[in-house]
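User: Can you recover a sequence for this backbone? Please restate the input before giving your answer.

Assistant: Of course. Working from this structure:
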């Protein structure tokens, strides 16, 4: 199932030549809710103490979650996303479902043998819910809020407006960094330092404006960020490979050497 969802997230970005519509914010949030419901059902299964609770949790809650991400919803949504070559998109989506089934059976068996069936259900629940929810919830929420505002006319007439807004927010971030710096040893953890709070405020506005630019340009921010993550990972692995071939120690190479390797890997793509 997790493989199915991963494929579901990738088909729009990875299939060359498949024009797609923007994924509606409401549909994205609904999909996340379905995923959370399936994870909750699996987590509840670890607490089963009677035949009645088994029927309730697995026969109803888990079955409902599986049904909501099953063939009929998948077919309906894919057919609405893709204008042309729907058959290709459907084939990719359904192949992800089949791959998920092939992976889940031996994985479940291994987890049961290694940790027991109660722990296996908890691990599967955590894997399914934590795989997607934290990565996309904030981006989906911003996308949905902006769509709601646009629905009543509170929107830019074209993409140039969001572009200018991104520039404006970036200037405010730069001004904040100039005034108070950006060296906080918090490692992303919330801080009581008011300077950190102001910088967080400005960076949040910048991210929100970038999401709005994505929406106006017809690009879903979560999928765009996912593809950017994969590009970075692929290029960084290329740097590590070149460094190993040339006897370069990555940890001590320095920024100039690593930047040169980065450009070399990027140019070879």
């Amino acid at each position: 199932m997790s493989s199915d969802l991963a494929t579901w997230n990738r088909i729009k970005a990875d299939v060359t030549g498949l024009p797609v519509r923007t994924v509606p914010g409401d549909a994205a949030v609904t999909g996340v809710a379905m995923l959370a419901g399936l994870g909750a059902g699996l987590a509840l299964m670890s607490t089963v103490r009677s035949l009645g609770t088994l029927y309730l949790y697995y026969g109803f809650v888990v079955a409902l979650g599986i049904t909501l991400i099953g063939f009929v919803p998948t077919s309906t949504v894919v057919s609405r996303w893709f204008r042309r070559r729907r058959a290709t998109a459907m084939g990719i989506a359904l192949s992800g479902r089949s791959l998920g089934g092939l992976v889940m059976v031996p994985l479940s068996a291994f987890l049961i043998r290694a940790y027991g069936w109660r722990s296996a259900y908890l691990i599967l629940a955590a894997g399914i819910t934590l795989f997607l929810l934290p990565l996309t919830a904030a981006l989906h929420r911003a996308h949905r809020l902006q769509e709601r505002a646009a629905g009543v006319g509170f929107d830019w007439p074209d993409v140039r407006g969001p572009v200018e807004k991104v520039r404006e927010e970036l200037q405010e971030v730069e001004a904040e960094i100039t005034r108070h710096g950006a060296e906080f040893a918090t490692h992303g953890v919330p801080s009581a330092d008011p300077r950190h709070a102001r910088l967080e405020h400005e960076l949040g506005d910048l991210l929100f404006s970038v999401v709005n630019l994505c929406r106006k340009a017809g690009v879903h921010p979560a999928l765009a960020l996912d593809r950017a993550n994969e590009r970075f990972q692929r290029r960084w692995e290329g740097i590590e490979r070149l460094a190993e071939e040339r006897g370069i120690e990555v940890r001590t190479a320095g920024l100039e050497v690593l930047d040169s390797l980065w450009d070399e890997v990027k140019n070879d793509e």
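That completes the design. Confidence is low (pLDDT under 50) at residues 1-29.
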